[in-house]
């Protein structure tokens, strides 16, 4: 994988779909690995013909809950052409209490004309935060080829696991559009949206509406596709929080396409009703910084502006940008005795353990972007000789004044030496290593002449014991040129760890201050790694999952500080 395989959305807020007013407040279960090229063909030496965006909605879903409506989510799978195995590709958000959901999250996939790309959509009713689909209620599925799904808008009946249609399970609609990624990348900033005189509702006890703001783009067939939902605001004269959308998401880089803005009332039972409907274009938003739209007696005022937005490749091509890689390894006793083959730290001569796999996979990618290829490596949760004192941020090479090690291979060698020297102990504390890395990043030059972005990867086998302190440290780190990747190894339940990944809800410290950016990505290793796995295939999928958000986070940090590549200015 290279960082050229990045998504085009750059924002200092979570992706627009997580703002859905009736999206679940549960943990974001989306994987977004973008692995079509790995699982739909023979390795793909050929370039894809194009990228296709698939938008999903469902209707009349079977209700799997007794006291409320189902909380649906759609999972997309792709089939490996040689093995015939299905592999998960991506997931939508979860929408609470809704049997007719329109999902904001899109599936973006490479399209190969020369191949038959088999895909499958499964619909689930979510019952918990678990990432394991076996823990949720299966509603129905549908199988097709990507070529079939790419023919405008198609609707299919969902079938059960055996392909039977005797029981009505609902239907799924897939709307496709080619992604126009060659256009000028712009970001539209919606700085203030206010509404005056939303209509009263019928009924004595619910006269005031509880409306969320919904924005839909139109495709070439004039179909409307939801791209943003806000949280609901109560009252007839609401104000909505500021947000931003990339032009490719808002209008597929065609600023003259209509966009539809609706005020949608949401009942407590999940039922929704559109009360007001407005239409404009991104071009009109650009030409009218304070735009007023009218629907009957309701007035919508939009204060917005657009900016051209740099790409990750422009930073990379500038010659002034590089990346620094830090790794922190969990040496707590819960990993097991390193001499026991069942230990997560057991080192064999034939296969890497989980820690070695993560270090090698991610390190080999990131070292391409560092000129000297020297990386800081740490351990935490171990007793160190000779005193036996427990440390939570000790240098893997035991040199506290210079923790840098030559390359990924050097980190792996230092790790194997270290595991023979330290005594595994505990507890599992993240905040010391996050604060140490943050302090290091503060001292690094980051301006128009030189940009160095740091990625800290923490590999752990258990749930952390200093959650509050870690949240405080992450909020502080979000102000710096750094991102944090947390890799969960082993079979522990990492559900609570997901709160650190700010995809759904922006993390806050103990004083209520939110992080300025989403900088944390959590990935459970068990979704990818087994001791006898095909490392080449797994490396590709693992790297996609772990590193996919990094380019966007890089651009967010520098562009929002008006540090842009010289080529962008020209």
Beta-strand fraction estimate: 25-35%
Number of helical segments with 4 or more residues: 12
Low-confidence stretches: 1-43
Whole-number radius of gyration? 24 Å
Number-wise, the strands total 28
Mean pLDDT: 85
Structural class: alpha+beta
Indicate the multimeric state: single chain
Shape: globular
Helix content class: 10-25%
Our measurement of the CA-to-CA distance between the termini, rounded to an integer number of angstroms, reads: 29 Å
Main beta sheet, described?
7 strands, mixed
Give an overview of the whole structure.
With 570 residues, the chain is α+β, with helices and mostly antiparallel strands. Helix content is 18%, strand content 31%. It is built from 12 helices and 28 strands. It has helices at residues 36-39, 146-149, 247-251, 282-287, 312-317, 354-366, 407-419, 431-442, 467-477, 535-547, 550-559, 566-569; strands at 50-59, 72-79, 86-91, 107-111, 118-125, 137-145, 153-157, 171-178, 186-196, 210-218, 224-229, 233-234, 239-240, 243-246, 259-266, 272-280, 290-295, 298-308, 321-330, 374-380, 382-384, 389-391, 394-395, 404-406, 423-424, 451-460, 482-488, 520-524. Strands 19, 20, 23, 24, 26, 27 and 28 form a 7-stranded mixed beta sheet that branches. Strands 9, 13, 14, 17 and 18 form a 5-stranded antiparallel beta sheet that branches. Helix 6 (354-366) packs antiparallel against helix 7 (407-419) and helix 8 packs parallel to helix 9. The longest helix is centred in the middle third of the chain and has 13 residues, at 354-366. The model is unreliable at 1-43 (pLDDT under 50).
């Amino acid at each position: 994988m290279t960082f050229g395989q990045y998504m085009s959305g750059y924002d200092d807020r979570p992706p627009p779909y997580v703002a859905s007013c009736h999206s679940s407040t549960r943990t974001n279960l989306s994987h977004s690995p973008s692995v079509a090229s790995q699982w739909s063909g023979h390795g793909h030496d050929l370039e894809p013909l194009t990228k296709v965006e698939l938008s999903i909605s469902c209707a009349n879903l079977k209700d799997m809950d007794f006291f409320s409506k189902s909380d649906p989510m759609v999972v997309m799978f792709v089939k490996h052409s040689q093995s015939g195995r299905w592999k998960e590709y991506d997931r939508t958000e979860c929408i609470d209490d809704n049997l007719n959901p329109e999902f904001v999250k899109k599936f973006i996939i490479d399209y190969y004309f020369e191949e038959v790309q088999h895909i499958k959509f499964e619909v689930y009713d979510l019952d918990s935060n678990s990432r394991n689909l076996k823990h949720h209620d299966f509603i129905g599925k549908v199988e097709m080829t990507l070529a079939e799904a790419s023919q405008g808008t198609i609707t299919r009946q969902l079938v059960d696991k055996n392909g039977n249609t005797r029981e009505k399970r609902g239907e799924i609609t897939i709307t496709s559009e080619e992604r126009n990624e060659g256009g000028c990348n712009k970001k539209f900033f919606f700085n203030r949206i206010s509404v005056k005189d939303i209509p009263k509702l019928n009924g004595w006890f619910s006269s005031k509406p509880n409306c969320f703001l919904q924005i839909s783009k139109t495709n070439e067939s004039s179909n409307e596709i939801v791209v943003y939902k806000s949280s609901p605001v109560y009252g007839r004269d609401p104000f909505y929080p500021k947000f931003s959308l990339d032009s490719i998401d808002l209008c597929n880089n065609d600023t003259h396409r209509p966009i539809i803005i609706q005020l949608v009332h949401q009942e407590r039972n999940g039922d929704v009703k559109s009360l007001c409907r407005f239409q404009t274009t991104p071009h009109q938003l650009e030409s009218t910084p304070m735009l007023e739209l009218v629907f009957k007696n309701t007035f919508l005022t939009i204060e917005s502006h657009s900016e051209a937005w740099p790409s990750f490749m422009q930073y990379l091509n500038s010659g002034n940008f590089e990346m620094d890689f830090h790794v922190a390894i969990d040496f707590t006793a819960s990993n097991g005795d390193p001499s026991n083959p069942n230990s997560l730290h057991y080192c064999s001569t034939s296969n890497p353990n989980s820690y070695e796999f993560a270090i090698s996979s991610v390190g080999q990618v990131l070292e391409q972007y560092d000129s000297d290829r020297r990386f800081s490596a740490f351990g935490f949760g171990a007793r160190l000789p000779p005193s036996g004192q427990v440390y939570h941020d000790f240098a893997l090479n035991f040199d506290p004044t210079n923790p840098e090690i030559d390359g990924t291979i050097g980190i792996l060698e230092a790790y194997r030496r270290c595991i023979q020297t330290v005594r595994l102990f505990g507890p599992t504390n993240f905040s010391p290593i996050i604060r140490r890395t943050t302090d290091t990043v503060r001292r690094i030059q980051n301006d128009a002449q030189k940009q160095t972005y740091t990625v800290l990867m923490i590999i752990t086998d258990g749930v952390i014991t200093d959650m509050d302190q870690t949240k405080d440290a992450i909020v502080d780190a979000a102000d710096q040129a750094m991102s944090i990747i947390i890799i969960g190894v082993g079979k522990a339940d990492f559900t609570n760890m997901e709160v650190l990944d700010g995809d759904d809800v922006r993390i806050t410290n103990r004083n209520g201050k939110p992080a300025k950016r989403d900088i944390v990505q959590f990935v459970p290793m068990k979704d990818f790694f087994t001791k006898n796995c095909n490392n080449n295939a797994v490396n590709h999928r693992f790297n996609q999952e772990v590193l996919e958000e990094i380019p966007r986070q890089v651009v967010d940090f520098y562009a929002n500080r008006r540090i842009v590549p010289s080529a962008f200015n020209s």
